[in-house]
UniProtKB/TrEMBL annotation:
The lineage of its organism: Bacteria, Bacillati, Actinomycetota, Actinomycetes, Micrococcales. Pfam families: Phosphorylase (PF00343). PROSITE patterns: PHOSPHORYLASE (PS00102). It is an enzyme of class 2 (transferase). The keyword Electron transport does not apply. It catalyses: [(1->4)-alpha-D-glucosyl](n) + phosphate = [(1->4)-alpha-D-glucosyl](n-1) + alpha-D-glucose 1-phosphate. It comes from the Bacteria. Phosphorylase is an important allosteric enzyme in carbohydrate metabolism. Enzymes from different sources differ in their regulatory mechanisms and in their natural substrates. However, all known phosphorylases share catalytic and structural properties. Allosteric enzyme that catalyzes the rate-limiting step in glycogen catabolism, the phosphorolytic cleavage of glycogen to produce glucose-1-phosphate, and plays a central role in maintaining cellular and organismal glucose homeostasis. InterPro entries: Glycg_phsphrylas, Glyco_trans_35, Pyridoxal_P_attach_site. CDD domains: GT35_Glycogen_Phosphorylase. This is Alpha-1,4 glucan phosphorylase. Keywords: Carbohydrate metabolism, Glycosyltransferase, Pyridoxal phosphate, Transferase. It comes from Microbacterium marmarense.
Length: 828
């Protein structure tokens, strides 16, 4: 910096880049970015060049606000939320950032002036798929809401070099390709190698005398560098920009130099690769943790870097540590970041030399835990052997936490050894392991479930002893979705209609959608609403034609089931409905003229190692190729399964849907968030009483929701009595014919073995009781057909769904977290 510009000079403090808030200004900035950023002129620029130049123009505009926010946050020192999540399923950024900055129209005009179609540039962006499904997308919605509400927040996570795999179908079977989302670079990230943190692993611990105080320290064996990459998280047209900070692993010099100097070049490279593997790839398993060492490395890597970041960057050096709860709250997104608890204790006790009890009191106020599942096999545990080898000091700390906890349990409950064994953070079977959900529950100020039913089951079924031990600790915060991405951006036609009726305020105050209730009674509005839906279907049809060569026929109901493939979600129930309808036609029992034309759309990835899920994908494709090509069906039924369902495709499919399939076994889907997105876009739900479906139905009303199937208590009691699938098979001829058709090889060219494992699973070994809900499901689908026949009444119901689902804005979820868990406030 030249001497005449002292660091405190206003110019040195002021944010850079005057915002290009006119079309001419935008054109100038865009061309400048094209020339000096990409080294090309407009006439020889590729679509990628133009996309990057556009992204940089938007980014420059937001930069001023970002820098200002960072400065103000340092100045005011308000309490901030550190959201710790191993996943962020962000979706494309360009459109979101254009909308947030209020530049959408200006950009469109400016590009048009340069002869460029904005839509072509949108298609250039590779979405960052740094998450598996609901949990990762929820994190992305939450940080959007926090920025929009002006709440200080940093989202911490991992910059996976490869996100969720790209799915293709080979002969109807899933194949996985690496998702090299960074191969062209990302215009949205800012690397800060100078801000790297060193993260240690392995080694041993020792005790020493610190001027009369006995202390422990950790002597690690190896380390890696965690390099932060910052991403802007702009609020919706409020001039606020928060930060998402993702860590990338890089080998440390000292580590490989040591080996290198020993002359073993290959070993040095191997060591480097080993270290850099940590942030190489997102684990594509959701819900069944594999207990892999690399995964624990990933978890510790990002939380240790994040905690250090909070101490180094957020807090002044002389900060009084007992005041930490006034400055920071760490929200644990499921158990994946829970190793942060012993790490935080280690920093406070070993490094900052805080007294154990004082440190623990602080820790218990600085963490809160969200549970996202009910499946027992999805609760993470780490073998003590592994944890002790990778993080020896952390294991000691966990033991100490457990010891103190169990003393307190004995005080409260007496020497009930069974109960103590059940509540111990350390489980003994099948191998001695740390139960991460228990650790999170003991450490967290609050533990929340993600929908009313889920939270109640968490309290009553999963952690009842803990609920009794910690009255008031367990609460519910129902999930939500961001209306910016999932209504305003993904459904511009509907948004236009809503804005014409209500003005623009609904985008940040979604409860205002209530005012649409009156419009449901207006025939003119219903006509417009129906036109919007039809237009969205045509748009989807264009996308699927271009993307997959699919044709969506006019006049079809769009019946959509998009979500990860998992047995508990019961895609098989949907398959059985399709096969039943098909069998009715080919057997002549149903006149094809009487069939309501439907297009069934599936989107689903299966975890690569989940054999049954992959078989079900194969079956869906097989049923599709038979049904779609059977002339007897006369095109009345179509099964479309576009591969590689992701956020970008969701944004196209959801606005076009008529019917939303939410058919999990009651008590298994923690919340669901797709269900909310569909309802907000005017699809009617066919669903079980599960997760947030319960709340959706309560809000939209029974007349506007197709409920079917067993309730959670009914599921429990049938299971306790002994679930006998064969009795359902024997009692229902439609079910028999459908299963028999699959078993006979009707969808496998006569091969009876191909789908036999699916059929026998349903008949003999199905924890998710598909056959028990079959007849109720078929009955509810008949009601759907009847309801759809009255298009005007259907549209009225669809409008009421939109009008009554404002509650499911993630802004409301965030308000709940703020008021009941975080006790933070919007700042400045
Ligand atoms: C679990 C695991 C286990 C270890 C391997 C990697 C991995 C990755 C993700 C998960 C998370 C599974 C839990 C999950 O995604 N739950 C979903 O969370 C949504 C948001 O709360 C909720 O709507 C869904 O109902 C719930 O299934």
């Amino acid at each position: 910096m030249p001497d005449h510009l002292h660091p405190t000079h206003p110019l040195a403090l002021a944010p850079v880049a005057a915002p290009p808030s006119t079309v001419d200004g935008f054109v100038r900035e865009f061309l400048l970015n094209l020339n000096s950023g990409r080294g090309v002129t407009l006439s020889n620029a590729s679509a990628t060049d133009k996309y990057f130049a556009l992204a940089h123009t938007v980014r420059d505009y937001l930069m001023a606000r970002w820098l200002e926010d960072l400065r103000r946050q340092r100045e005011v020192q308000d309490k901030g939320v550190a959201y710790l999540s191993a996943e962020y399923l962000l979706g494309r950024q360009l459109d979101n950032n254009l909308l947030a900055s209020g530049l959408s129209e200006i950009a469109e005009e400016a590009l048009a002036a340069c002869g460029i179609d904005l839509d072509v540039l949108r298609q250039q962006e590779v979405e960052p798929g740094l998450g598996n499904g609901g949990l990762g997308r929820l994190a992305a919605c939450f940080i959007d809401s926090l920025a929009t509400m002006g709440v200080p927040n940093v989202g911490y996570g991992i910059r996976y070099e490869y996100g969720i795999f790209r799915q293709t179908f080979v002969d109807g079977q899933q194949a996985e390709q690496p998702d090299a989302w960074l191969s062209l670079g990302s215009p949205w990230e800012f690397a800060h190698p100078e801000g790297a943190q060193t993260i240690a692993f392995g080694g041993h611990t020792e005790t020493y005398d610190d001027e009369g105080v006995p202390r422990s320290r950790w002597i690690p064996a190896w380390n890696v560098q965690a390099v932060p990459y910052n991403y802007m998280v702009p609020g919706y047209q409020n001039g606020r920009v928060n930060t998402l900070r993702l860590w990338s692993a890089v080998a440390t010099n000292s580590f490989d130099l040591r080996v290198f100097n020993s002359g073993d070049y290959e070993e040095a490279v191997r060591a480097q690769t080993y270290a850099e593997n940590i942030s190489k790839v997102l684990y594509p398993e959701d819900s069944t943790p594999q207990g892999k060492e690399l995964r624990l490395q990933q978890q510790y890597f990002f939380v240790a870097a994040s905690i250090r970041d909070v101490f180094d960057v957020m807090l002044p050096a002389d900060f009084e540590l007992t005041n930490l709860p006034e400055r920071i709250i760490f929200q644990l997104n499921d158990t994946h970041p829970v190793i942060a608890v012993p790490e935080f204790m280690r920093v406070l006790v070993d490094e900052k030399k805080m007294d154990w009890d004082a440190a623990w009191a602080v820790t218990q106020q600085c963490f809160a835990y969200t549970c996202h599942t009910l499946l027992p096999e999805a609760l993470e545990v780490w073998p003590v052997e592994l944890l002790g080898r990778l993080l020896p000091r952390h294991l000691e700390i966990i033991y100490r936490i457990n010891e103190d906890f169990l003393v307190a349990v004995r005080e409260k409950f007496g020497d009930d050894e069974m109960r103590i064994r059940d509540m111990s953070i350390i489980g003994e079977h099948p191998v001695r392991s740390v139960r991460m959900a228990y650790l999170a529950t003991v450490a967290g100020a609050k533990v929340n479930g993600v929908a009313e039913l889920h939270s109640q089951l968490l309290r009553d079924k999963v952690l009842p002893d803990f609920n009794e031990f910690y009255p008031g600790k367990f609460i519910n915060v129902t999930n939500g979705v961001t209306p910016r991405r999932f209504v305003r951006l993904s459904n511009p036609s509907l948004s236009g209609l809503i804005t014409d009726a209500l003005g623009t305020g609904w985008v940040t105050d979604l409860e205002r959608l209530r005012e649409l209730e009156a419009y449901a009674e207006d025939p003119e509005f219903r006509t417009q609403f129906a036109e919007v839906k039809a237009a969205n279907k045509r748009l989807l049809s264009d996308v699927l034609r271009e993307r997959d060569g699919f044709e969506v026929s006019d006049g079809h109901m769009l019946d959509v089931m998009v979500k990860r493939l998992h047995e508990y979600k019961r895609q098989m129930l949907k398959v059985l409905h399709i096969v039943t309808t098909y069998e009715g036609i080919i057997s002549g029992r149903v006149a094809v003229g009487d069939v309501q034309p439907r297009t069934f759309i599936f989107g689903a990835k299966a975890a690569p190692g989940y054999v049954m899920a992959k078989r079900i994908i194969h079956l869906i494709n097989a049923v599709g190729s038979v049904v779609n090509n059977d002339p007897r069906v006369e095109g009345k039924l179509k099964v479309l399964f576009p591969p590689n369902y992701n956020v970008t495709l969701a944004e196209r499919v959801i606005p076009a849907a008529d019917l939303s399939e939410q058919i999990s076994l009651a008590g298994k889907e923690a919340s669901g968030t797709g269900n909310m997105k569909f309802a907000l876009n005017g699809a009617l739900t066919i669903g079980t009483d599960d997760g947030a479906n319960v709340e959706i139905r309560e809000l939209v009303g029974d007349d506007n929701f197709f409920l079917f199937g067993m309730s959670e208590p009914e599921v429990e009691s049938l299971w306790a009595k002994g679930y006998k699938p064969s009795s359902f098979y024997n009692a229902d001829s439609g079910l028999r014919r459908s299963l028999d058709l699959i078993a006979a090889g009707a969808f496998s060219g006569g091969d009876r073995s191909m789908f036999e494992p699916i059929v026998s699973n349903l008949l003999y070994d199905d924890r998710f009781m598909v056959l028990a809900d079959y007849s109720a499901y078929i009955g509810a689908q008949a009601k759907v057909d009847a309801a759809y026949a009255d298009q005007d009444a259907w549209t009225r119901s669809a409008i009421l769904n939109v009008a009554r689902c404002g509650y499911f804005s993630s802004d409301r979820s965030m308000r709940d977290y703020i008021e009941r868990i975080w006790h933070t406030a919007p700042s400045f």
